[in-house]
Write a structure and sequence with these properties.
With about 350 residues, the protein is of the alpha/beta class. It folds into two domains: about 140 residues, Rossmann fold (3-Layer(aba) Sandwich), CATH 3.40.50.720; about 160 residues, Dihydrodipicolinate Reductase, domain 2 (2-Layer Sandwich). It has a nine-stranded mixed beta sheet. Helix 4 links the parallel strand 3 and strand 4. The two termini are about 40 Å apart.
């Protein structure tokens, strides 16, 4: 495939803003062919604000031969029909997390795209932060030694007004609470650094701070396939909210990643620091973070699709974090350790 990637944008809600900003930065690589959402007023306002063409009907984009891919930014309960429609039309798909509300449904979407021979990429933009890539390179080079312990903390805050939006924090719309809607980013990033988790034991709850169907607090112990152990705590009930963090303790050094800053403390006394402080959306404003991570992820997706290469974060790879989330929830429900196959 040569030239620019023709892209359809589906969904104009809160999560679409960093995508729109990123796409304006990528006009040399991507041409937005149309924006569609079910509400005409919203899609018109979004298209006008960002200078994108408006599509009056979804079928218009599906039938357009110059649309090579679709960026799907809808809530999880609207994904199934959209993915099926675009995949059958031979359009590649880049989709917001999670893949679907349940792992079974997510697996179905992955198989559907593979059968249609279209690429399915998932928006896990935290992998594209510069310090995330630096940490991954240090791990791969052996600078940290063997990782023996992993600590993940997601102490976020959401006011009740956030969950008052119809469907927010419900199983029917979102598929769950803090794990699948917020902590999924940090858990995916962790897995990309550490490899798979083999066993978990967890407790989850809905705190007195929120009225919602699913959980807003989870804490658990982790055993990794590598032999490392670890812990995770994730919540949207920690006022006023703080940045998520990942700490990896290795035989040669310990690394701490938080707020766009990576600090590595070596056992020989050296300390190295990379990055600069940036918002991550952990407080009252969920969108308080830079759009550069989205830009780099979308650029990578477009470049790989145009080159006929596999995308960086595929739907199949995203199933790993879905299965980890399932295990954490099941462990709390059954009050026992759960093994991940």
């Amino acid at each position: 495939m040569s030239g620019k990637l023709g892209l359809a944008v589906i969904g104009t809600g809160m999560a679409a803003l960093p995508h729109a900003r990123a796409l304006k930065d990528l006009q040399d690589l991507i041409e937005v062919k149309g924006v569609y959402s079910r509400t005409q007023e919203k899609r018109f306002a979004f298209a006008q604000e960002h200078g994108f063409p408006e599509a009056a009907a979804l079928e218009q984009l599906v039938a357009d031969p110059d649309v090579h891919a679709a960026l799907i930014i809808t809530p999880p309960n609207q994904r199934q029909a959209l993915v099926e429609t675009f995949a059958r039309a031979g359009k590649h798909i880049l989709m917001e997390k999670p893949v679907e509300r349940t792992t079974g449904a997510a697996e179905g979407l992955v198989r559907m795209c593979e059968a249609a021979k279209v690429q399915l990429g998932i928006v896990f933009q935290h992998r594209f932060r510069e310090v995330s890539r630096t940490l991954k390179s240090l791990i791969d080079a052996g600078d940290l030694g063997e990782i023996g312990m992993v600590r993940v903390s997601v102490p976020w805050w959401r006011a009740q007004a956030y969950y008052d939006e119809p469907g927010r924090g419900s199983y029917e719309r979102d598929g769950g609470g803090v794990l699948i809607s917020q902590a999924i980013h940090t858990l995916d990033l962790m897995l990309s650094m550490t490899g798979p988790v083999s066993e978990v034991q967890a407790v989850s709850a809905t705190t007195r701070f929120h009225k919602m169907e699913a959980e807003d607090f989870v804490a658990g112990g982790l055993r990794f396939a590598s032999g490392a152990v670890g812990s995770v705590m994730a919540t949207t009930a920690s006022f006023p909210g703080d940045a998520e963090s990942i700490t990896l303790d290795g035989t040669r050094a310990s690394a701490h990643l938080q707020s766009g800053v990576l600090t590595v403390r070596y056992r020989d006394g050296r300390v190295q620091t990379w990055g600069e402080t940036a918002g991550t959306g952990g407080g009252a404003d969920p969108m308080a973070f830079p759009h550069g991570w989205h830009r780099d992820l979308i650029r990578s997706f477009a470049s790989r699709v145009l080159a006929g290469e596999p995308v960086d974060v595929s739907g199949r790879e995203a199933l790993h974090v879905h299965r980890l989330i399932d295990a954490l929830v099941q462990s709390s429900k059954d009050r026992r350790a759960v093994t991940i196959d």
